[in-house]
Amino acid sequence: MVASVKKRRLGRQVSIVGAGMSHFGAFRDKTSRDLFVEAFQDMMDTLDQGIDVEDIECGYVGNYSSDLFEGQGHTAPIIADWLGMTPAPVTRIENACASSGSALREGVMAIASGMYDVVLVGGVEKMTGLPTEGVTDVLATAADGLYEVPAGMTFPGIYGALAKAHMDRYETNLDHLLKVGIKNHNNGALNPKAQFNVTIRQMMERRQARAEQRGETVPAWKDEMDFLNDPASNPWIAWPLRLYDCAPITDGASCLLLVSEDIARNFTEKPVQIAGMGQASGRPLHDAEELTSLSAAKYAAAQAYAMAGITPQDVQVAEVHDCFTIAEIIATEDLGFFEPGEGPRAVDEGRTALTGDRPINTSGGLKSKGHPVGASGVAQVIEVFQQLRGEAGARQLSNPNLEVGLTHNVGGTGGTCVVNIMRRG
Amino acid sequence: MTDESREFNAASFYEYLKEGRLMGIRCRDCAHLSAVPRPLCPACHSRGVEWHQFSGKGKLSTFTCISIVPVAMAEQGYGRDNPYCSGVVTLEEGPRISALLLGVDASNPQSIKTGIPVVLDLENLAQDKPRLAFHPA
Hints:
The complex is a heterodimer of chains A (425) and B (137).
Chain A: E1 14-21, H1 32-44, E2 58-62, H2 66-70, H3 75-83, E3 90-93, H4 99-112, E4 118-126, H5 132-140, H6 155-169, H7 174-188, H8 200-213, H9 224-228, E5 236-239, E6 241-242, E7 251-260, E8 272-281, H10 295-308, E9 317-320, H11 325-334, H12 343-348, H13 365-369, H14 376-389, E10 404-411, E11 416-424
Parallel strand pairs in A: 2-3, 2-4, 9-10
Antiparallel strand pairs in A: 1-7, 1-8, 4-7, 5-6, 8-11, 10-11
Chain B: H1 10-18, E1 22-27, E2 33-34, E3 49-54, E4 57-66, H2 71-74, E5 84-91, E6 96-101, E7 117-120, E8 133-136
Parallel strand pairs in B: 6-8
Antiparallel strand pairs in B: 1-2, 1-3, 4-5, 4-7, 5-6, 7-8
């Protein structure tokens, strides 16, 4: 934890009154604008009282790289046009995988400043138009192009190096990483919007059934761990990370309607308040303070806790940036949920499961829900919004007194981290 | 110490590397060392930085063996069946840098140990974009 940060406050309070997302997955014929329209319509359906699109005064769209993924720059006004928002001002925010976390922050500040009362924030990414090698190259542009990429570093590679350092320093092992993936798929199987709306055991059993149907030798996996330890089903990506340690390549969009708290009940009886926000920047791994932690996450968390006036122990539900399984373990330590090096044991003990005392990534996380990079930060907030309102369906936490949730959204390999704390309003 | 007058940027870094020299900066005000050149000291923000030649000796601090490779590495023959090793090296003078690790069996990561001494690899530097690489000492 960071010793002390300045306690900042908003000029006025901001509420989330609507939240919606597209289905996450691979949609060959859909572009960013189509995905965003789907998220917008889903959001509009959550507003009890509805709203005329003309009454949305301003917008911020998180998007990492429509330029490289789709050959389309200047995405925000196109989306505004497709929503019918023109001529309202809209701005694209780019902070790699934290783009929509930052877009949300900009939207909150726009209202807190007093300039606007009703602001749309969201994020979108259309990634599946490129082959895997192309996506790897685009994601690598979030690292240092002068001193990391020429050293052969990829996005999974840098997290692989973080994982190796964590394994060297603590008792972390490969099984801990796999268990994070199994847990997140168990949650994602309960999320109808998830790209992989299926448990890893179900994936294993489907493969066995398919082999049997085709008259092929049926792989003799006895359980998920057996399946995940088979290099044929779970190949290396960037040792010590395998395929099932990595969030998938995803198309998707997410959006929220933010309003000044004093008018929140004009839109819904169940607003969710922005209680704390933090954002920080960090340096490349070779210049990082530690090789087992993301300093930006610690600074962002300290800011958000200070603004909200809470401690890590007060957080009842959290969505953290599990772009890789090791990233979830490190996140739970950086956020102060567990001591450094204790994250893996918490996974072993089931503490981060849906039924644990510290549920993490109830949505399925980026791993199972999918990771359309520019949309992920706001999609995390949507899960917390639904949990706090008791609307998370089969994933709803059993705690009847859910009040406080947190999101942790990382850009690149820790160059940016955004932490938001939400409170039932 | 050196009286070189090249600009403190990546073009100079890679020009020096072609000459077989690992050149970063030292701050005249606070003595901070950085393995990559930059015009402002990252520790005290002073403009008073000067070139500093590193010995090219260090230790492997962490690494990964990459099987899903970027296009540029695929062109060099790396891929699923021929992974490469990339990591973070802590130079003997203190700063760290990201680099390729050659001369190890990237198909068998368990055979690669963190903490091993490594040295700057001087092979294949005479190309347009020389790659920063180390190998076990």
